[in-house]
Amino acid sequence: MQAYRWVIDSRDQYTEERLEELNKGIRISKCENIGMCTVTCPKGLNPQAAINELLEMIKERRERASEQLL
User: Fold this and answer.
1) How do residues 20-54 score in pLDDT, each as one tens digit?
2) Rounded to an integer, what distance in angstroms lies between the CA atom of residue 4 and that of residue 55?
3) Concatenated DSSP letters for 2-66?
4) Which residues have a Cβ under 8 Å from the Cβ of 18 and sit 6 or more positions away?
5) What is the pTM (predicted TM-score) of this model?
6) CA–CA–CA angle 50, 55, 66 (5° rounding)
7) Can you tell me the distance from the alpha carbon of 5 to that of 34, in angstroms, rounded to the nearest whole number?
8) Integer Cα distance of 37 and 32 in angstroms
9) Domains in the chain, start-ordered, CATH in brackets?
10) Is residue 24 exposed (0-12), middle (13-18) or buried (19+ Cβ within 10 Å)?
């Protein structure tokens, strides 16, 4: 949730760097999207939706990068 909060903040100037860092290794890609994080969140937040949106942003970033190489 913290990563998502920073990435969607329009004032943040390091969105690309944050997405790159999240994309490294097995960090966000290891999420199995079962959704128990949302069910058990004591604050009533929706971490699964945030993770899914981050994954989509990372995918779009990869696509833009591959298009630039062409």
Assistant:
1) 888 887 677 778 888 899 999 999 999 999 999 99
2) 10
3) HHHHHHH-TT-S-HHHHHHHHHSTTTGGG-----HHHHH-TT---HHHHHHHHHHHHHHHHHHHH
4) 3, 6, 7, 12
5) 0.80
6) 150
7) 21
8) 11
9) 2-69 (1.10.1060.10)
10) exposed
